[in-house]
Amino acid sequence: MKISQLSYFITIAQLENMSRAAELLHISQSSLSKTIAALESELETPLFDRTSKQLSLNPAGKRFLKSCDLILQEYQTLKNDIQLMTTGSDTRIKIGSCGSIDRLYPCMAGFKNIHAETEYTLNSYIEDVEYLDINEYDVLIYPAELQYDRFTGFGFSTENYMLAVPTVHSLSKSTAVSLKMLNELDFVFLRHKKSFPEHAYKIYKALTIRGASQSFVDSREMHRQIIASGIAVGFVSENCSDFYRSKNIRLIPLLDHRFSRELRICFKRDKHLTDFGRSFRDFTINYFSLKEIS
């Protein structure tokens, strides 16, 4: 069993789609399929329930995923410890986010101009991680939602939602969508970790939109497929928009400014930060003049 197999398995488990996982990992789909087949052969059990369009974890796969997360955490800690022993420094910065981090890029570039040895690792799918641990990341950019209340962070930015509609939908030719135009539509919403509905659902309920129906899914890939198939429309935050862009989906701005969410940024606990990570934290706080949320 190889560490790369575990990483590939986790990516597929998060996306529930082999082709999109292969695209994200920059390997061919056939190579990825062979890697997972070899892993299942070694474990002597399938890890996924397979259909023609989707993969989903079976009970064995869910149990294995929990162990993979722990193994990779321990492996990363071991690598960091060995690097510190041999070189005396760790120059990697690991960043987790809920989509694109456009606002952070200039800060990252500024820090690298000062510290040319900096190496960045980015994970833009933290909303699909079931057991999110701040100590896995030097920096975490996350939505100000209930499931992240345990993190102490700084106000970072505000992002708007767009309406994702199938290209065959009557609204697909619209340049913008008003609140009134949302009535009598079929909607699909994300329900993270099978308990917390996405923030857009709370806005939808607060504005008393009269949808024709409401469906719920527990993965972003399934959310995208439901929309692309023409079954329903959905709300997509700006930071996650790249995941939805395709020939089958049109993203349309919403005119009501209340369709937005606050993003926050937090850092690994000080006692777990390397000296290099601490330097990046201080640089970022000063760069944006961040103020901690009380």
Notes on the protein architecture:
Residues 1-58 form the HTH lysR-type domain. InterPro entries: LysR_HTH_N (IPR000847), LysR_subst-bd (IPR005119), WH-like_DNA-bd_sf (IPR036388), WH_DNA-bd_sf (IPR036390). This is HTH lysR-type domain-containing protein. Keywords: DNA-binding, Transcription, Transcription regulation. One of its GO terms (molecular function) is DNA binding. It is built from nine helices and twelve strands. Among the domains are: 1-87, Orthogonal Bundle (Arc Repressor Mutant, subunit A); 158-261, Periplasmic binding protein-like II (D-Maltodextrin-Binding Protein, domain 2, 3-Layer(aba) Sandwich). It is 37% helix and 22% strand. By secondary structure, it is α/β, with parallel strands linked by helices. The protein has helices spanning 3-15, 18-25, 29-43, 59-87, 105-114, 199-206, 220-228, 241-244, 275-288, and strands at 48-50, 55-57, 92-97, 119-123, 139-143, 154-166, 186-192, 196-197, 213-217, 234-237, 249-253, 260-267. Strands 3, 4, 5, 6, 10, 11 and 12 form a seven-stranded mixed β-sheet that branches. A hairpin with a 3-residue loop joins strand 7 (186-192) and strand 8 (196-197).
